[in-house]
Amino acid sequence: MDPIFYTLQDFMTHTESVTYLLVIATLIGMTVFWWFLTGKDKD
Amino acid sequence: MSISRRKFLGWVGAAGLSTTIGKPAAAATNQEFAGYPDSFAILHDTTLCVGCRSCEAACNKVNDLPQPDQPFTDLSVLETPRRTTTKAFTVVNKHDSLKKPGHPVFYKKQCNHCLEPACASACFVRAFSKTKTGAVVYDASVCVGCRYCMIACPFEIPTYEYDQALTPRIRKCTMCHPRVIEGQLPGCVEACPMEALSFGKREDMIKIARERFRKYPDRYVDHIYGEHEMGGTSWLYVSGTPFKELGMREDLGTTPAPELTAGALSSVPIIVGLWPVLLAGIYAVSKRKEKIAQTEQEQAAASALDADRSEPSQPEEES
Amino acid sequence: MAQVTTGERKSIFSLFNFIALIVLGVGVYLTYLRFTGGLASVTNLSDYNPWGIWISFDLLCGVALAAGGYVTSSAVYLFGMKQYHSAVRPAILTGFLGYALVFLAINYDVGRPWRLPYPLVVQQGTTSVLFEVGLCVATYLTVLFIEFSPAAMEWLGLKRARNIPIYFFVTSIVAGLSMVIFESTLSHRFFAYKMDETHLKEASGVTLGFGKAASYVLAGYFAIKVLGISAENHWHYLKTGYGTWYLVELLGFVALPSLLYAFGVRTKSLTLIKFTSVLAILGVILNRFNISLVAFNWQLPAGERYFPHWMEIGISVFIVMIGLLLYRFIATRMPILYEHPDYKDAH
Ligand code: SF4
Ligand code: SF4
Ligand code: SF4
Q1: Contact flag B27-A10 (C-beta cutoff 8 Å)
Q2: Partners for B (CB, 8 Å, 3+ pairs)?
Q3: Rounded to the nearest 5 degrees, what angle is found at the Cα of B269, between the Cα atoms of B267 and B274?
Q4: By three-state DSSP, how is residue B114 classified?
Q5: What residue ranges do the domains of chain C occupy?
Q6: Per-residue pLDDT reduced to its tens digit, B206-232
Q7: Considering only CB atoms, which chain A residues are within 8 Å of B269?
Q8: Is the ipTM of this complex over 0.85?
Q9: Any chain A CB within 8 A of the CB of C325?
């Protein structure tokens, strides 16, 4: 599935949508990773 | 330079409106976006326009707009500059020519159907879309009514139904998209008695304009307004007077609108990626400092106790 | 002695209550007008001026509240300035209420407010800067709510919920930054008509509120502004009407507060610093309204220029009043300005 974009507008809508999804994934991922990283330090 | 109906229908077929769209092999990967192939455009030749307002009347009719206060035959409205409204998707304005006083120039104003529409890039629900016919169409069924598109449009075209309490819409010229997909000409183009408006493939319209420049060099300013403005538009203009004198903005540049906001948007991933790291770092450092301070304090207290002091030195902060 | 004080308090409060009642009454009527007659019946907005004071007001509050909230909590949670701990809850409450009210105001402004979730759930206009701002503000509001919920839960006698200050901090920074980005994108459009507006960062600088820092930041801001005029060779704009406004803003509300802060810091005069912060905040407000009332209209014929209708201002006042009343209600009942006795040492 290779989308064809005729306008920059459509192309950016696509790339930005993917970016936003990744941003959300990153935020969740970083949080989980932080917990994983510091979880053992708790006293 | 109008076109025959048959030829027009042929173009409609060529643009693949009713069938699936053709797939040029190279289009998918390169980062140049030339717009939909074979999309349409309208060429407005202001040197042919006589300001009869037939296009306004036709637009009013094909879009079922309410009757105006003054009839379309009343040409006195041309004396004051007007803009597009919810009741008029197009207006013709009269401008005095500096070159030839007494010979006013008329300029028809409506949505320019940008190749990369600012309104579409601004809308946060994607209510606007550039169609393959060339028209920029609006979908009222998702519009929130935030009016950011009006702020974004460099030509100040979209209008808003301020008097509607619960169902306000954005209104603007549709380039007669519903008519065009049925194989009809846009209302205004069909109505123009002077052939000041021509409809056809965008490349052909540009060719026609250049041809006119070549044939009548004295008659025109050598510039097609809309060929590159804001990344290009599907409504093109040629004129004998500088476009600035017609009240058209010449400061817009050729950068398409989506590119203008790309900078602001691309900072988002960086912020999202870096801030947590930075903050967690500071947080960890200050936590660590606190811990060290606490241990030192405990040690100090312990040694103080060892030295038989009854009062531990604890600089307790108020909270 | 104590009785006199409470007596005085009571009379002030009942005067306040009286005004509040009038404002609420008018506000409810204006709300009715807005949702039966449309925006045309309460605002002076037009096709030339799609946005008016409501938006400037929202952006203003947005930046100020985001900045106030995150500076306080960063001081406490990140840099370990525990002595400000008592300020965190009021700051978070103010941030939350403020943002909630900005959201309420937006419901008046947009045409079909029930569609506000559409950009998230129906169709995402990801190329829009407004989409980005909306996303940040929504996240921020959610986190503020979670952040604030412990106080509400303690009030209800429930167990203390886990505090997650770090998210609050991150989102508030992003929300603040995105507001700045948004504003600069907006003013981008008006570059040709007015002077350099790229450096809209003063909002966070001003609200820092810490005399020394604010003084220095203002001085830097002043320098940026002057250098900006020079870099784009806009000196001649200073002679125009907008230029005069600009000078008033620059000298009266940037240079002057900077100097006053400096004097205040050197002479350790708290009164002077407090007075100056009011001046500086007035400067920010002036700047926002300057942008929306003067700069946005710069190119328009005089007849088309926008000035807010009294009813527009009325609705803004109404919304601020709701905020004040809610704050009073919450602050007098929930453990905001004091620590709940049962949970005192849980931090
Ligand atoms: S002229 Fe304005 S409304 Fe029309 S497509 Fe371009 S940006 Fe959109
Ligand atoms: S008013 Fe409607 S079409 Fe325009 S930007 Fe807002 S949601 Fe999109
Ligand atoms: S293309 Fe259609 S909607 Fe646009 S101005 Fe012409 S008649 Fe009106």
Answers
A1: no
A2: A, C
A3: 95
A4: strand
A5: 15-339
A6: 999 999 999 999 999 999 999 999 889
A7: 19, 22-23
A8: no
A9: no
